[in-house]
TrEMBL record:
It comes from Pseudaestuariivita atlantica. The gene is rph. Keywords: Nucleotidyltransferase, RNA-binding, rRNA processing, Transferase, tRNA processing, tRNA-binding. Pfam families: RNase_PH, RNase_PH_C. This is Ribonuclease PH. Belongs to the RNase PH family.
Length: 237
């Protein structure tokens, strides 16, 4: 039995609210169980120096956790004077994931920055950030299309992510914190709406896993991403 009482292949409740901030070109609040992430997308008429003059756009991401998003207060990274390694790794992951669903030529020489701020954490914050971040990105791109700044939709497909793992010897979908902290194997699966893999992060800790188990986790992830894409579609309809 999972601590939450969910079935092995059952997601936590997922909601995505849009238009949650006044100033951002695109914004969403994604809630995956008790994990809540605010995602905002900002349009800028500039690109990083390394692609300036190429005619291509850029999508990047930043990620952070509020001091009391967890059980005990964590120190603000700004107070420490630098970002932690985990933060840097996660925001690079979010940026890579979102760019996989973007035709950067169609975007033109402009940048979209997706900020993902964890309000409350209960496992799966990076996956929620990617899923909610795509919605904020979609809304920002819609504004570009509506204004006539671009004529071709640069978003080629949905992008969503979900965690899976081996908990108490069983493959489970969408790990919450009690499961994530005890799982012998856990992974993050990032996929497009068409079912193409963008990135898979899997690791064993205190256990190993077989190829058959990996296939089981991939099947669970595909089903979970399909559900998330349906929710993204409803949120942006």
């Amino acid at each position: 039995m999972r601590p939450s009482g969910r079935q092995l292949g059952e997601m936590r409740s997922v909601t995505i609210e849009t238009g949650v901030t006044k100033h951002a070109e695109g914004s969403s609040m994604i809630r995956v169980g008790d994990t809540h992430v605010l995602c905002t997308a900002t349009l800028e008429d500039r690109v990083p120096p390394f692609i300036k003059g190429s005619g291509q756009g850029w999508v990047t991401a930043e990620y952070g956790m509020l001091p009391r998003s967890t059980n005990t207060r964590m120190r603000r990274e700004a107070a420490a004077g630098k970002q932690g390694g985990r933060t840097v790794e996660i925001q690079r992951l979010i940026g890579r994931a979102l760019r996989a669903g973007v035709d950067r030529n169609a975007l033109g020489e402009r940048q979209i920055t997706v900020d993902c701020d964890v309000i409350q954490a209960d496992g799966g914050t990076r996956c929620a950030s990617i899923t909610g971040g795509w919605v904020a990105l979609r809304l920002a791109v819609n504004k570009l299309l509506q204004s006539g700044a671009i004529v071709t939709d640069p978003l080629t497909d949905h992008v969503a992510a979900v965690s899976c793992g081996i908990y108490a010897g069983q493959p489970v979908l969408d790990l919450d914190y009690p499961e994530d902290s005890e799982a012998g194997v856990d992974g993050n699966f990032i996929m497009t709406g068409a079912g193409q893999l963008i990135e898979v992060q899997m690791s064993a800790e205190g256990a190993t896993f077989s190829r058959d188990q990996m296939t089981q986790l991939l099947d669970l992830a595909e089903a979970g991403v399909n559900q998330l894409v349906a929710i993204q579609k409803d949120a942006t309809a």
